[in-house]
Amino acid sequence: MVQATPFLLVLFLALGAHGASVKKCSLIGRWVNDLGSNMTITTVNANGVFAGSYHTAVTATMNEIRLSPLQGALQRTNQKGQPTFGFTVNWSFSDSITVFTGQCFVDDDGKEILKTMWLLRSRVESIKNDWKATRVGINVFTRMQ
Fold first, then answer.
1. Which residues are CB-contacts of 56 (< 8 A; sequence separation ≥ 6)?
2. Is the CB of residue 27 less than 8 Å from the CB of residue 85?
3. What is the pLDDT of residues 97-116, one digit of tens each?
4. Whole domain around residue 44: which residue ranges?
């Protein structure tokens, strides 16, 4: 058993070092999605609350697209480094708001990816038109270089 101890120690250290080198996702930075929209997350505080801006590449309005603020929260209890999050974009150029929910992943190549689903709520003139007020979709964001 004494001769096996150094082998087990080396094996344990090698496995531990591999686990320690796992890259964790960070939301802070600039992101682009599959439609060409850009998002910048500037701060994440100790409670997981974050803020930033969103510049969409697509719109259903005829209004000029403008940079819009976003606010969100990150699930801080996830110790695996691939946290869940949610954020709201208050569109500066239309009577609508979008909420996103998703998770930050690190793929096998170490690349960070945000997989999200969103609900966009547009203002309608009356409750009769409520049926067309909410849209749903998905977006995949990658970090901008």
1. 35, 37, 65, 68, 91
2. yes
3. 999 999 999 999 999 999 99
4. 29-143
